[in-house]
Amino acid sequence: MESLRISRPFDAHVHLREGDILKTVLPYTADVFFSAVAMGNLKEPISTAEQVRVYREQILSALPSGSNFMPIMSVMLQKNMTPEILEQTFEAGAQVLKFIPAATSTNSSASNGVTIPELRNYYPVLAKAADLGMIFSGHWELARDAGNVEIPELERERLAIPWLRGIISDFSELKIMVEHVTTAEMIEVVKAAPDNVAATITAHHLMLEAKDVMDPSGRIINSLNYCKPVAKTHRDRMAVVETAVSGHPRFFFGSDSAPHPISAKRRIPPAAGIFSDPVALSIVAQVFEERGFLNRMKNFTSGFGPQFYGLPISQETIVLEERYWRVPESIDGIPVFMGGKAVKYQIVS
Ligand code: DOR
Ligand code: ZN
Ligand code: ZN
């Protein structure tokens, strides 16, 4: 039986939510990861210093007792953002400026959000982020074309590329995260970019393809697998997998674990987001093992992320053992990714 001991991992992208959901989901992140970037797309998106402080306290007080989990706080790029406000949020503990384009995903409203083309109006904010050493972490999907026509979901990441390229070439001093890459083309953009640009890869995008989510007409056939960006073609998934196991230091783990109650997942259209942290590391281990690179997993989950974020690698460790276990269908009414299925590798300590 194989077992693998790795430094406690880092989740560079997680949605911990608030209130009761926070209490339910937090242990699945905090018991495993030494730290995680807590995204601020709450019902009232985090956009001020006071909200950063309050949310940080909320997370810390929901932690299991004795936990030394360290949340990395984020602030959302919303219409109200200025360099001054950004600096205040930084002083309140925010290390990440998070960008979800307006009206493209959970709690990114059309009225307060910023679209990708509007980013050019926020260059002073991005320059301030660079000065402060904050990380600009973005969900790179273009929702509407120049004629304001909605772009099909499968094309949104590719069509964001020219805009992202512009930001990369205008901000050589800004640390830029390309969240949850799902296309071969986006992966190439990140590889070709300078060292201030990195990308996260989720567990679910290592496993899913568009056919697991929607039919050829784009109708959602499995809402539990529905997230943004939606999983793409087989070729794209192979590029994601090959890149993850390749040992490239600018591609590392970020779960994008995004819990929604079953009622929201059953709605039409369903809420986008996959609650994956209870199973994410097991999946990553399985994929790395299948490719013959289990020895590279530790860099992907525990090394490259902290390195890019300027965090120390955890001195604590966890052990994954090769042992099948059945993933629960749901936890407190929140469906879990791969629920009901058996997965190899269980975290035993
Ligand atoms: O699928 C997603 N869910 N994509 C996002 O960008 C947001 C996330 C959420 O917060 O539910
Ligand atoms: Zn996202
Ligand atoms: Zn996310």
Question: Compounds present?
Answer: (4S)-2,6-dioxohexahydropyrimidine-4-carboxylic acid, zinc ion
- Cα(first) to Cα(last) distance is 16 Å
Q: Helical element count?
A: 11
Tell me the number of strands.
15
Q: Outline, from the CA principal axes?
A: globular
Describe the largest sheet. Answer: 8 strands, parallel
Which series of helices and strands comes N to C? EEHEHEHEHEHEHEHHEHHHEEEEEE
Record the SSE blueprint.
Blueprint: E1 3-7, E2 10-14, H1 19-30, E3 35-38, H2 49-62, E4 70-76, H3 83-91, E5 94-99, H4 123-132, E6 135-138, H5 156-170, E7 175-178, H6 184-192, E8 197-201, H7 204-207, H8 234-245, E9 251-253, H9 262-266, H10 280-290, H11 297-309, E10 317-321, E11 325-326, E12 330-331, E13 334-335, E14 342-343, E15 346-347
Parallel strand pairs: 2-3, 3-4, 4-5, 5-6, 6-7, 7-8, 8-9
Antiparallel strand pairs: 1-10, 10-15, 11-14, 12-13
Helix pairs in contact: 3-4
Bound molecules: (4S)-2,6-dioxohexahydropyrimidine-4-carboxylic acid and zinc ion (2 copies).
Overview of this protein structure:
The protein is an alpha/beta fold and 349 residues long. The protein has one domain (10-310): Alpha-Beta Barrel (TIM Barrel), CATH 3.20.20.140. Helices cover 33% and strands 17% of the residues. The chain contains eleven helices and 15 strands. It has helices at residues 19-30, 49-62, 83-91, 123-132, 156-170, 184-192, 204-207, 234-245, 262-266, 280-290, 297-309; strands spanning 3-7, 10-14, 35-38, 70-76, 94-99, 135-138, 175-178, 197-201, 251-253, 317-321, 325-326, 330-331, 334-335, 342-343, 346-347. The strands form four sheets. It has an eight-stranded parallel sheet, sandwiched between helices. Helix 3 links the parallel strand 4 and strand 5 (94-99). Helix 3 (83-91) runs parallel beside helix 4 (123-132). It is globular, with a radius of gyration of 19 Å. The model has no long low-confidence stretch (mean pLDDT 96). (4S)-2,6-dioxohexahydropyrimidine-4-carboxylic acid binds at residues 15, 41, 100, 105-106, 139, 227-228, 258, 272-273.
